[in-house]
């Protein structure tokens, strides 16, 4: 599955597009676990101390923010684009 990373996350991932070997129908949670395993520097950016996903990380599945779908349990359909955005500031 190809994932697009934006802004500061690109530096950690080593580029804009990264291929992950996750099973078809994997959830957002499973994808983020694969990303953490491959890039441990993601961990403090992704999670709050209580274990929930940071409010500032945005994960889009097929153009829709996963919080408006099934949250971390959102399944990722085969071929659906996945985009992950870090916190952003500015105006």
Describe the structure in your own words.
The chain has a single domain (2-85), classed as Roll (Ubiquitin-like (UB roll)), CATH 3.10.20. The model has no long low-confidence stretch (mean pLDDT 94). A five-stranded mixed beta sheet has the order 2-1-5-3-4. It contains three helices and five strands. The protein is of the alpha+beta class.
Features:
single chain, 91 residues, alpha+beta, Ubiquitin-like (UB roll), 5 strands
Which SSEs are present, and which pair or pack?
Layout: E1 2-5, H1 8-13, E2 17-19, H2 28-38, H3 43-46, E3 58-61, E4 64-65, E5 82-85
Parallel strand pairs: 1-5
Antiparallel strand pairs: 1-2, 3-4, 3-5
- Tally of alpha and pi helices: 3
Helix content: 10-25%
Q: What is the averaged pLDDT score? A: 94
Strand order in space, largest sheet: 2-1-5-3-4
Short note summarizing the structure:
The chain is α+β, with helices and mostly antiparallel strands and about 90 residues long.
């Amino acid at each position: 599955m190809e994932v697009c990373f934006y802004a500061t996350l690109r530096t950690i991932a080593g580029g804009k597009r990264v291929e992950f070997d996750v099973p078809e129908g994997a959830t957002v949670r499973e994808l983020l676990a694969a990303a953490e395993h491959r890039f441990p520097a993601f961990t403090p950016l992704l999670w709050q101390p209580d274990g929930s996903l940071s409010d500032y990380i945005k994960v889009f599945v097929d153009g829709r923010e996963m919080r408006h779908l099934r949250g971390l349990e959102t399944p990722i359909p085969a071929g659906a684009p996945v985009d992950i955005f870090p916190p952003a500031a500015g105006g």
